[in-house]
Design a protein that fits this description.
This is Replicative DNA helicase. One of its GO terms (molecular function) is helicase activity. It is a single chain. With 151 residues, the protein is an all-alpha fold. The protein has one domain: Hypothetical protein af1432 (Orthogonal Bundle). It is 53% helix and 0% strand. It contains seven helices and no strands. The chain has helices at 4-13, 24-41, 48-54, 68-78, 87-99, 113-123, 141-150. The protein is globular and about 40 Å long.
């Protein structure tokens, strides 16, 4: 379940939550994906719902917006008081949000199980925009195994 106070803040600050491609329905699927991967990856299940809620909340549009991840990280910092994570968990959340758009397997951040799980949770939902999940862009073995379930 999403943090209601943070979700209310996002709804006050942006309309992106209403987006059919990058809004609340997508965020919910990212959360479900991440929480379902976590038992296999060892990801921190407290971080995943925050990542799901924040990662696309600062998009300017539905198309090319290469800086939306860093903006989401800045937004999280601005609203730190609403995020119930310890400092290390918050650091991981910021890294996950900031890097989720451009990260590729093998990058340093992807070696953290929680960050990798967050990124895979998002990428497993790429079918919503008409693309096919490509396991070459996934970070965890658990997510790669799920690709075959999606086909």
């Amino acid at each position: 379940m999403f943090d209601e106070k943070l979700l209310a803040q996002i709804k006050r600050d942006t309309d992106m939550w209403q987006s059919p491609w990058h809004g609340l329905k997508h965020w919910s699927r990212v959360m479900v994906n991440g929480l379902s991967l976590a038992p296999e990856t060892g990801a921190d299940v407290d971080i995943i719902p925050y990542f799901a809620l924040l990662h696309d909340c600062c998009r300017h549009d539905e198309y090319e917006d290469p800086l939306h991840g860093p903006r989401a990280a800045s937004y999280a910092k601005k609203h730190r008081h609403l995020i119930q994570l310890d400092d290390y968990q918050f650091y991981l959340l910021i890294r996950a949000c900031a890097g989720h758009t451009h990260a590729l397997p093998g990058c340093r951040a992807s070696f953290n199980d929680t960050i990798a799980t967050c990124w895979d949770a998002d990428r497993l939902d790429i079918g919503r925009v008409g693309l096919i999940v490509d396991e070459r862009y996934l970070f965890t073995r658990a997510a790669k195994n799920r690709v075959f379930d999606l086909i």
